[in-house]
Each structure stands twice: as C-alpha cells, then as structure tokens.
Amino acid sequence: MTGELRVPRHRNLRRTAAFSIPYRLWFDTQLVLKALAIKYESRVQVITVEATSNPITSERIAGSIFPTFQLWKDGHPTTTYVGPHAMPDLEKAFEATLI
C-alpha cells in the first residue's frame, strides 16, 4: 500500500463507480499540483481554476476536458496537457518551460 492515495469517505454520499473515478482523478491532481507548487514556489506560480464555479474562465482557458494543465510563459500558453498526468511528466514540462 505504499504510495497509494486513499480517498476520504463521505458520510452522506454513496460511493459509486461514477463518483469514485472522477473524484480520484481530482484528488490525485490536487496532490500533484500542491507538490509542484511547493517545489517550484520561487520560480513558478501555480493557479487552479474550479471549473464548476468559473465556467466562463474555464471554457476560455482550458476547454471542457478535465483536468487540463496549461503552462504559460511571458503571458502566453506554451504547453497544454489534457487529462491526468503523473508528477514526473508535469515536472519535466515545468523544467522545459523554465529554461
């Protein structure tokens, strides 16, 4: 079980396959972003947009597939990743963008 993430149980919500998979992807994504934000805090600003609360901004920046990661440099997007990605993949993208 080393390295495995545990999804917290919700008292008032039944755990179904339809709920568990998207929640797991969201939960994993949040952990990856937090870790990258800490590692690169002096060089990178990590911003997250809650798509359901900000649909117009989300649609303009990332479209409708979640999660979508965009790396920006000098005010312009340089790289876009759609779907969940492992931390090493995103870390390589961060490093390439910082060069």
Automatic annotation (TrEMBL):
Name of this protein: Thioredoxin
Please, which domain of life does this record's source organism belong to?
A: Bacteria
Quote the InterPro entries the UniProt record gives. Thioredoxin-like_sf, Thioredoxin_domain
Where is each Thioredoxin domain found? 33-93
Per the UniProt record, the lineage of the source organism begins with:
Bacteria, Bacillati, Actinomycetota, Actinomycetes, Micrococcales
